[in-house]
Specification:
The protein is an alpha+beta fold and 289 residues long. The protein folds into 2 domains: 117 residues, Threonyl-trna Synthetase, Chain A, domain 2 (Threonyl-tRNA Synthetase, Chain A, domain 2), CATH 3.30.980.10; 107 residues, Diaminopimelate Epimerase, Chain A, domain 1, CATH 3.10.310.40. It is built from 7 helices and 13 strands. It is elongated, with a radius of gyration of 32 Å.
Length: 289
């Protein structure tokens, strides 16, 4: 497929092209384009064209007389029409991306000529913006980004360790309530987590309570949620994440059953096991407020 703004080409190959293979294809095409080779077209019988090893797509039905397009020393193929009189207008040639369209069939989309120049100028502008954000023209953006990524990984590990430590503490920022609600015929301890805390805190807090042998924790059913709702992937819907943990001293009570009771009362979804279950509620349990 050839359009004014891009071209598409399907070819047989068992796997994705590597970065070096893509570079090799681009360099080869650009080298040929810069040679400004004149294309030669010629009509001949199909048998004669095939005898000259002209490239043909055998899924197509060709008439007895065919038209060939020849780039001397590079290619000869059957083609009903060509968009060029020479190779030069193809320069520069840039592959945008590749994909799989069927088993053993790859597809590339690319730009050439004026559209490729526009694409490259756009990328140059983006790179300049990135460089400016990283500190200016004397900054090597690749090295700086690599350093930043490593710094972020190190900080994420440190944050994760701190979250684990914080989850095992009864912080004043966590609203913890003991509840005697007639609709819940078991001892409840409710934990409302500040919304600015990462959701991983909720998970770590739940696992801490599950494994705790302290009497002020092990004898309760714990319900953990956030003080404010979290937005869904659509950015519009809001739900409250909820985790139910059954303390180690609580007998004959199933966390999943407790969660189902919450879901039936406050609407939502979820599941899990006997000692820990989790889900989402459309509204926060009023006993937490």
């Amino acid at each position: 497929m050839v359009a004014p703004d891009k071209l598409r080409f399907d070819f047989t190959y068992p796997k994705a092209l590597s970065e070096s293979q893509i570079n090799e294809v681009e360099n080869s095409i650009n080298d040929i384009a810069l040679q400004n080779i004149k294309l030669r077209t010629e009509s001949m019988r199909l048998e004669e064209a095939l005898a000259k090893n002209a490239v043909a797509t055998f899924t197509e039905n060709y008439p007895p007389a065919v038209r060939t397009v020849n780039i001397p020393n590079y290619s000869l193929e059957l083609c009903a029409g060509t968009h060029l009189s020479s190779t030069k207008p193809v320069f520069p040639f840039k592959i945008l991306h590749q994909s799989s369209v069927a088993a053993g069939t790859r597809r590339i989309e690319a730009v050439a000529g004026t559209q490729a120049v526009k694409h490259l100028l756009s990328k140059e502008t983006q790179l300049k913006c990135v460089t400016d954000c990283l500190g200016g023209k004397n900054v090597n953006p690749v090295d700086t980004v690599k350093t930043l990524r490593q710094t972020i990984k190190t900080q994420e590990r440190a944050i994760n360790e701190l979250v684990t430590l914080l989850a095992e503490c009864d912080s004043k920022q966590i609203t913890i309530k003991l509840v005697n609600d007639p609709s819940f015929n078991y001892p409840l301890q409710l934990h409302a987590i500040p919304s600015q805390y990462p959701l991983s805190f909720l998970q770590k807090r739940a696992h801490f309570l599950k494994s705790s042998r302290e009497s002020d924790k092990s004898k309760y059913v714990h319900i953990l949620t956030t003080q404010q709702p979290t937005k869904g992937k659509d950015g519009a819907s809001e739900t409250y994440p909820v985790i139910v943990v059954v303390g180690s001293e609580v007998k004959e009570l199933n966390a999943k059953e407790v969660l189902m009771q919450l879901i039936s009362k406050y609407e939502g979804s979820g599941g899990g096991g006997a000692t820990l279950s989790q889900g989402k509620l459309k509204s926060i349990p009023d006993i937490i407020i």
